[in-house]
Design a protein that fits this description.
By secondary structure, the chain is an alpha/beta fold. About 35% of the residues lie in helices and about 25% in strands. The protein has 13 helices and 15 strands. It has a 9-stranded mixed sheet with strand order 9-8-10-11-7-12-13-14-15, sandwiched between helices. The chain has a 6-stranded antiparallel sheet with strand order 3-2-1-6-5-4, covered by helices on one side. α1 (about 5-30) packs across α2 (about 35-50) and α9 (about 265-275) runs parallel beside α10 (about 290-300). It is elongated and about 80 Å long.
């Protein structure tokens, strides 16, 4: 039998103390009444003051104890401190005992866990209730969001074999700008100016990339160049876009079906509904299924300047994925699909995450047309790696490779 060391004993004592104090706070509160946060804090203070031997604990520990008690009662328990930390970009929970965070591009496991599986379940239900979603054994997978806009994915039993799996993707408190991307060498000044003109001229732009490559962030950045007088409609599975400076902005979000009889509302339905809302531009947060059919129809029916994102390994791979998505929901010739893609999508911007964990624009490609049943691509910018510096940071630059062939929208906007 393993003997616990001194640090483990102290941690166990602290956990037990917190559990006892939280139960005392709960016993003191009358749950018929709706308590405000201030009243909960006052109740915690009263319990701490009345606790024997509390004065022997350092002031810093007492402050920490008060915050953790409050977070466990009214917030997200041990997750709250990491949700509030702007340097944490991802929180991953694999059951009650294994929590990982990504901070400054590095992944590490925390030495804390939930005190019980029931407490983790309470936190999960608090998250989904906050955005009118439901998750249980009958419906074990759900996408949700936190009040600050962080994206949450939850997978429960019986699908998740090692306990509830929760993945929280945090976004910057202040939206990243193109200037910030230039400072981080994520894009070259020439490419940034080029994309700014394309957005203003209402080119249809598709952003592709792998998981965590920064697709949503880059879409937010490009939206800064949309003229403020335009009516923009965003459509998302779980609202996470942070479009700024657009007074005529409509935000739509899908809904899951539930046991109360509310039917599911899909991205396809929202796209079709948005066409009756007089949009100047339609922005679909991510295309991942048969909604690609409706998205392409939008792009081919006069809604220029629309944008979307998708998972792919390259710009050409994104086109193949779009073809497969359309075929999933419609039995039409591949030639017709490719012609729809070629006439609807103008530009593909592909992002990637390099081995030094940096996010870069790897290629900007023009869809030049469809010839002999094949979509023709015109590479405009390609990232060329030149090596690594002494810190292991990859060096390279987004090099210009070609000229834009279709300049009709630039001419129409007076931006040629």
């Amino acid at each position: 039998m393993r003997v616990m060391n001194e640090q483990e004993v102290r941690k166990l004592e602290y956990t037990e103390l917190k559990k006892i104090l939280r139960q005392k706070v709960r016993d003191r509160m009358n749950y018929v009444k709706d308590y405000s946060d201030e009243e909960v804090e006052e109740t915690i203070d009263e319990i701490l003051l009345g606790q024997e031997n509390m004065a022997i604990y350092p002031v810093e520990l007492r402050r920490r104890l008060k915050k953790e008690l409050f977070d466990s009662l009214r917030r997200l328990d041990i997750l709250q401190i990491f949700v509030e930390d702007s340097s944490v970009t991802e929180i991953m929970i694999n059951g009650k005992d294994h929590i990982f965070i990504e901070k400054e591009g590095r992944l590490r496991e925390l030495d804390v866990g939930f005190e019980s599986a029931e407490k983790l379940q309470d936190v999960i239900q608090q998250i989904v209730a906050g955005c009118n979603r439901v998750v249980n054994e009958a419906s074990p997978i759900v996408d949700a969001r936190l009040p600050d806009g962080a994206r949450v994915n939850i997978v429960m039993n019986p699908v998740a074999l090692n306990g509830p799996i929760v993945t929280i993707r945090r976004f910057p408190d202040k939206p990243i700008t193109m200037e910030r991307l230039l400072q981080m060498d994520s894009i070259s000044p020439e490419a940034a100016q080029f994309l700014e003109r394309l957005v203003r001229a209402k080119y249809n732009i598709f952003i592709s990339g792998g998981t965590g490559s920064g697709k949503t962030t880059f879409l937010n950045v490009l939206s800064h160049d949309i003229p403020p007088e335009e009516r923009v409609i965003t459509i998302e599975d779980s609202a996470e876009l942070q479009l700024q400076g657009l007074p005529n902005l409509v935000r739509l979000e899908t809904r899951n079906s539930n046991v109360e009889g509310c039917r599911e509302i899909t991205i396809r339905e929202l796209i079709r509904s948005s066409l009756r809302m007089r949009p100047d531009r339609i922005i679909v947060g991510e295309v991942r299924g048969v909604e690609a059919i409706d998205m392409l129809q939008c792009l081919n029916t006069g809604h220029d300047g629309s944008m979307s994102t998708g998972h792919a390994n390259s710009g050409r791979d994104m086109l193949a994925r779009l073809e497969n998505m359309v075929l999933m929901g419609m039995d039409i010739p591949l030639m017709a699909i490719r012609q729809q893609i070629a006439s609807g999508v103008d530009i593909i911007v592909h992002l990637g995450r390099l081995r030094d964990r940096s996010r870069r624009v790897l290629e900007i490609t023009e869809i030049a047309g469809c010839e002999k049943g094949e979509i023709r691509l015109n590479p405009l910018f390609l990232f060329e790696e030149t090596g690594e510096d002494s810190r292991g940071i990859i060096t390279g630059r987004l090099q210009k490779k070609g000229e834009l062939l279709h300049e009709d929208k630039l001419k129409a906007a007076g931006l040629q």
